[in-house]
Design brief:
Length: 199
């Protein structure tokens, strides 16, 4: 059975959301960490694209985000790779929670929405934090900071005053909360005004 083609509506939604993501990158509303990660709203429109178009649409948006950030971000391909990989874990959390709870955005109750959001967040964070700790240690920070890999943990802990995994994990946990909860809160009003987006 072949993969379903994306509709023109889904392509348009992904394009609009990708544009918003790149706008948030270029005109940043962010809180930078001392070691290089930025807590921002860049991934929120990508989460909205997933919620409005499904997992394949969300995955497409993540891949396009990587390409777009590689061009417009000051962190180039490295920042694009890290943001796209982290956002992918959020999508996996959302999709897993959706399948487990049978959640639908069509008129959910408050309880269904909270249960889905919390479960999606917890699954996503359980994936994101170990992955980001590993990627920062083995790949990103060595390149970004220009230091040998064996100095990465020592340097980050000296800057932050907390264990390496906390320095990496806590901002990623905060970022995931922004992605999931603001992504959902931003999508619901859109669907109230344009309910046919889910058709």
């Amino acid at each position: 059975m072949g993969m379903r083609k994306m509709s023109s509506r889904e392509i348009a939604v992904i394009g609009i959301m990708l544009g918003l993501s790149l706008m948030f990158e270029v005109i940043p509303i962010e809180m930078p960490t001392i070691w290089g990660m930025k807590i921002d709203f860049v991934a929120v429109p990508i989460i909205m694209a997933y919620l409005l178009t499904g997992f394949i649409g969300g995955l497409t948006a993540v891949l396009l985000l990587f390409a777009g950030l590689s061009i417009v971000s000051s962190a180039s391909w490295l920042g694009g790779m890290m943001k796209a990989t982290a956002t992918f874990t959020v999508l996996v959390g959302l999709e897993t929670a959706r399948r487990m709870t049978k959640f639908s955005l069509e008129n959910p109750t408050r309880g269904q929405l909270i249960r889905f959001a919390v479960l999606a967040y917890l699954i996503g964070v359980a994936l994101r934090i170990p992955l980001m700790v590993a990627l920062n240690y083995y790949v990103a920070l060595e390149i970004w900071l220009g230091i040998p890999q064996e100095k990465v943990v020592e340097t980050v802990e000296a800057w932050t005053g907390v264990p390496f995994w906390v320095a990496i994990g806590l901002p990623n946990a905060i970022q995931s909360a922004i992605d999931v909860f603001i992504g959902l809160l931003a999508t619901l009003p859109v669907l109230r005004r344009v309910p046919h987006l889910l058709e």
